[in-house]
C-alpha cells in the first residue's frame, strides 16, 4: 500500500544541488542534517541522476565498525591493506582521477562523520584537487573528523543544511507514498507528530494505514482517531522511553496526558529531581514562556508510545491527579476548561455534571462537536437537567438528522404544555429542514405551533423564513427574517436561522448593500456563542453564494480567509464545511486546481461523517463546475451523480442546473447545456430570483449563447450591480460579434475577481476579431485569454476550445466539442440525428479551417484553445 518516492517534498533542495554542480565554484556539496531527515536519500538521488547522464559514480559509506580501521570506508576498493596506508591513499586518488579521463565522476560519501581519519583525508584530497565531484552527508551535531569539517569551512564544498520537511512538503510526501490526495488536517497532524522527519513520517503513515486508522474516502486519505504505534516506530523513536525508572516514567506519562504544563504544576505531581533527570535525558524540554517555566515532551511521539504501552487504570489515576491539581487554579481560557473536563471524564474521579456541561458548551464554541457530545451525554447521565437541550442542539449541528429527530420528537412530546416547549418544536423544524430535507413536515410543525410568548413567535418566524427561502419565496423570507432579527428576542441559534434565510433571500433579490451588515453581525455572533459557533462555516457558505450572485467575489475571498484564521485547530466535521467554503471561494476567483483539491477534501468529510445537509449538493455542484472547466468530464459527471439534492430545495435548482450544464459542456453537449440553463433562467424569472436568472444568462454567454442579451440588459437596469452590467455587455457584444466590447466585458469580469469568465470573454473576443479580419487584435485577445487560462490552472471551456485563427461554423463547433469529449463519429451522428458521412464532412472541413491533419490533432488544437499564432 505504501509506495512512492520518499524524496517527495525535496525538489527545492535537489535544484540547489544541481545549481551548485553547474556553477563550478566548488567540488560539490555537503548535506548536513539530523538523523532521518533524508540526507542519504537526497544524496542517492543526486547519484542516480548523474548515472542517467552517463557519469561514473561511486558510493562510500562511513560506519562505526569500519571507523577503527585505516581507510576502512574504502577497504572494498583496495586489493592490499598493508601496514603503510600512504601507498593506498595515492592509489585511491589516482584511480578516481583515472576515471575522470573517461568521463565525469561523482562520488557519494554517506555518514562522513563516521569516517576514520585517513578515509576523511582521502575525501578532503579529492575535494581539494577537484579531480572529482563529491556529495557528502554528515549528521548534524556529530563529531566529524577535521578533514570533513574543512570541506565546507575551506570552501571546497558547498554546505546544505537539510531542514525537516515543511507542512506542504510533508503533505507531498504522504500523497506520493499513498498515490492519492490527503486532507490538510491529516497532513498537519503527521507533521506535528514527526516534526517533518521523513523517516518517522514514512513509518507513521504506514502504521496508520495498516491499522485502518487512515482510510481512503471519496478519493481522499483521511486520518481520524488515535495513533497506531508499531514496533518499527517504537524502535526508531522510543528506545529511550522503553527502560525508564518508574519515577522518570511518571514524568513522561504525566506530560503524555496533558502538555504543555507549567513546571510549578508538574512539580506538585512528580519529584523535581526526576523532572530534571528527564530533561537531561532529552525526554522533556523546559522553556520559559510568559514569565514561567513550561514543560513539554521532547518529541510528540514519546507521548504516543507511552500511552500505547501503559495500562488504562494507571493512566486514569494520573488523569485524576492532573484534574484535581488543575482545578486549584482558575481556568485561563475555554481550552483549559475543556482539557480539565476531559481529564476528569477519563479519570477515576467521580462525575462532575457542571464541569461536563460547561465543557460541552465550550467544546461547541471551539468547534469540536464530537467531544461536546461526549460531555453532554456524560452530563445527562449524571443528572444535569440542562444537558438535554445542549445535546439535542449539538446532535443537530453534527448533522445526525435522524438521531436528532428522534430525540427532539420525544422531548417535544414530554414537554407539551410546558413553558419553552415551542423552542423544542422550532429546533425540530430546523432539523427537519436542514438535516433531513423534509421541508413540508417542518412547515406543518410550525403551522400547528402554539406560540404563547413573543420569544416563541419570533423563533417560529425565524424558522418559517428558512422554509420560505428554501421554497424560493424570497420576498416573504426576507420580511419574516428581518422582523425576527429586529425583535431582539431570538436565541443565538434562532438568530442564525433568520440570518441564513435573510442572506439567501437578499442574495437572490440582488440587494447587495444590505448583505454586509447582516453578514458582519451574524459572523460576530457565531464567533462567540456555543449555539452558533459551528454555524459560522454554514452561514459563510450561504453568504459566499450570495456574494457570487451579486458579484462580490473579492469580499467573499476575504471573508473565507478570515474564517479560516478564526480557529487554530478545526476538527474534522468543521473542516469539511471550511474546505467547501474555501473551495467555493477559489472556484469563484478562478483558482480551479486549488478549488478541486479543497472540494474533494470537503466531499471526503461529508462521506466520512455521513452528512445529509446541503453541504453535499453545494460541494458537488462546485466540484462538477471545477472539473468541467478543466476539461475533465468523467469527474464532473461523478460529482453530479453524487449531489443528492432534496426534492423540496427549490432554492438549489439554479445551481444544480448550472453544474449539470457545465458537466454537459465538458462532455461536448454544449447545446444541451445552454438549453438547460435557459430553462433554469426562465424558472428563476418566474420565482423572482433575478440574480439566479442573471447567473444562468452569464454561463450561457460563456458557452457562446447570446439569445437573451435583451433580458440581460433588463436585469442590469433593475439590479444596478457591476456584475449585471458585465453580463449584459458580454451577451450584447457576443451577439454583435464585437471584439472590443467583449474585451471590455473581460476587463469587467476581471475587476470583479472572476478570471475564468474573463478568460472566456477574451477567447470569444479573439474569435470575433479574427472573423472581422482584425488579426493583430485577435492575437492580442488570444494572448489575454491564454494568460488568464494559465492563471486559472489551465482552462478547457467551450470558449477556450474554439481556435481563434480560423473560426468554425456553429455546426462545426458543436461537432468539435463532441470530438474533444471522445465520442466516435457514429455516436455524434446519433446525438445530432444526422448521417455519419455528414459528420465526417464537418470534421474534415473543421480540420481544414484550423490546419489539423487528423481527428486527433483537431481535438488537441481545440483543447489548447485560442493561443496566439
Protein described:
The protein is α/β, with parallel strands linked by helices. The chain folds into six domains: 11-161, Rossmann fold; 167-228, no CATH class; 405-532, Serine Threonine Protein Phosphatase 5, Tetratricopeptide repeat, CATH 1.25.40; 543-638, Serine Threonine Protein Phosphatase 5, Tetratricopeptide repeat (Alpha Horseshoe), CATH 1.25.40; 669-799, Serine Threonine Protein Phosphatase 5, Tetratricopeptide repeat, CATH 1.25.40; 801-868, Arc Repressor Mutant, subunit A, CATH 1.10.10. 64% of the residues lie in helices and 6% in strands. The protein has 43 helices and eleven strands. The strands form three sheets. It has a five-stranded parallel beta sheet with strand order 2-3-4-1-5, with helices on both faces. The longest helix has 18 residues, at 492-509. The two termini are 47 Å apart.
The biggest sheet amounts to: 5 strands, parallel
Radius of gyration: 33 Å
Structural class: alpha/beta
Number of domains: 6
Distance between the termini: 47 Å
CATH class of the largest domain: Alpha Beta
Overall 3D shape:
flat
Strand fraction equals 5-15%
Helix content: 55-70%
Going by CATH, the architecture of the largest domain would be: 3-Layer(aba) Sandwich
